[in-house]
Amino acid sequence: MKVAIIGGTGFIGRNLQKSFNNPLIISSKNFHEIEKIKNCDIVINLAGKPIVKRWTESYKRELVSSRIETTQKIVKIINDSNVKYFISTSAIGFYKNPCICDETSPSGEGFLSKLAVAWEKEAMKCNKPTTIFRYGVVLGSDGGALKEMLLPFKLGLGGIIGDGKQKFSWIDIKDVISIYKFVIENKIEGILNISSPNSVTNYQFTKTLGKVLSRPTILPMPKTILKLLFGEASVVLLSNQDMKPKRLLDLGYNFEYFDLEKSLRSLV
């Protein structure tokens, strides 16, 4: 099957494209070629500006445009094509904060929740079989949150964020790639939470990463400093959402990386 990956040069996209034979890669640089997706069997949408960045009003508009308007264009093309299957993206920010949430849990009220709700609404306008991945924090050595954390932790500057009690819903990039294969092979539709069944607290994550790297983790990052650095976007790092992959477990997916320490040792 011919696969198109939109946002294919990002962290997840770079890892995912290795799983397919000569996929069509659409990035911001060649987005003018988006019409080519109509000749594919499967379209995977990973497009979207990074969330962990200070949210000015102009950057908020970029976050919305890169998700909502891009998805609108993709769905319009798919609906008038022979594409057989669409996999789009959303995130843990959909849910209330704090919460313990599976796929049936309600959405929240803040900017991230409203953005995720609108994003998913546009994806569900697709008239082909559609799946939406709601992501937790994806761990990989070549991108994403872990790559940003490694240098300060290696220098002994890593520490808990806030009081460290907030839940950290994580998943190993290798499980992410396996889940795409599992979902495509089994023709699964609807919403899926993409996170390990074994979420941890920020404190547990910090101490485990320090242990794996054999480095101290004694310098905390106070909430006030985070808010000075990231403003409103600090909610991403301070949120307390325990996301459960209930549907994946019910469907029989077996996580390779259930244990955080095993995942981190394989990555770093």
Description:
With 268 residues, the protein is an alpha/beta fold. The protein has one domain: NAD(P)-binding Rossmann-like Domain (Rossmann fold), CATH 3.40.50. Helix content is 38%, strand content 17%. It is built from ten helices and twelve strands. The strands form four sheets. A six-stranded parallel β-sheet has the order 2-1-3-4-6-10, with helices on both faces. Strands 5-12 form a two-stranded parallel sheet. It has a two-stranded parallel sheet with strand order 7-9. The model has no long low-confidence stretch (mean pLDDT 96).
CATH topology: Rossmann fold
What's the CATH H-level superfamily name?
NAD(P)-binding Rossmann-like Domain
Helices and strands, in N-to-C order? EHEEHEEHEEHEEHEEHHHEHH
Mean pLDDT: 96
Strand count: 12
Q: Helical amount among residues, as a percent range?
A: 25-40%
The Rg value, from CA coordinates, equals 18 Å
Give the end-to-end Cα distance, rounded to a whole number of Å: 34 Å
- Spatial strand order of the main sheet: 2-1-3-4-6-10
Which CATH architecture? 3-Layer(aba) Sandwich
Strand residues, percent: 15-25%
User: How large is the count of helical segments?
Assistant: 10
Shape: globular
The major beta sheet can be summarized as:
6 strands, parallel
Domains (count): 1
